[in-house]
Amino acid sequence: MRIAIGAFSHESHSFSKDTVDIQAMRQVLFDDKDEIIENHRGVRGDGGGGWLGGYIDYAEACGWEIVPIFAAGAYPSGPVTRETYAYIKNKFIKNLTGEQVDGVLLHLHGACCVQGLDDAEGDLLTEIRNIVGERVPVLTVLDLHANVSELMVEKADAIYGYDTYPHMDVYEREQEACQLLEKIVLGNVAKPVMYRTQPPLLFPAIYTQTKGGPMEKLMEKAVAYEQEEKVINVSPFAGYYASDKREAGPSCVVIADNAPDLAEKIAKEMATCIWELQDEFFAICRLSRRP
Ligand SMILES: [Zn+2]
Prior knowledge:
The protein is 39% helix and 19% strand. By secondary structure, the protein is of the alpha/beta class. Helix 6 (150-155) links the parallel strand 5 and strand 6 (158-161). Helix 3 (53-62) crosses helix 7 (170-186) and helix 8 (214-226) runs antiparallel to helix 9 (260-276). The chain is globular. The site of zinc ion (ZN) has 5 residues, from loops. The site of zinc ion has 5 residues, from loops.
């Protein structure tokens, strides 16, 4: 089996005057294809600062051949400059084009804005889909604070969100995506289908931790749904508030095995649950307004 791996991670504050250029990326992550495996093997990323270790370790344990594409990331700040994104996108295109792969495994943030482009991950997934075609599975892990778009859902075969904040399960979610890719390639799942819902809310980040708050309740509900037959994964996303785009805010993505109606039903029930928990997400804001 031959798999391509790549990462592009940035949480962009739409309203900040700061921008992210290549120099800012180089301070955090800017690895070309020849550097990726050595730099990321065994990296767990606990706390949310390292990506691809779960993919590399799983692939090497299984004897899969890895085709590294590119890995870029920077600290949260303002939008990524047009030139920086163009450079990264071109690297993805150049390093993936012509490669015969059985699957593509990506690690993206999901709340990246580029100057003049609100949905950077949707754009990158579109480009990758154009290169590999419809038959090659494309799977991605996203941050819990992703603003998931319909375009991302349309272009990817499977989207996994972190289950934790602070982000302690980066590695495990990558390994889970590997397991699904393996099942797809071996024919052990019929066809993953996704459904996304987005209740009309925008939460402050302060109360999106997954221990002892409303996100914990959403995660417990997601795990319960995952026990049902044909349900592959349920990811509630907290969203990222400081993003000036339609997809900003909490959402839920459900992956089911060739069962679109089931995915839709669960995603809608999860959206209702998020809506009903809204007071708990705003609890701290209300407290802070008390005289
Ligand atoms: Zn996050």
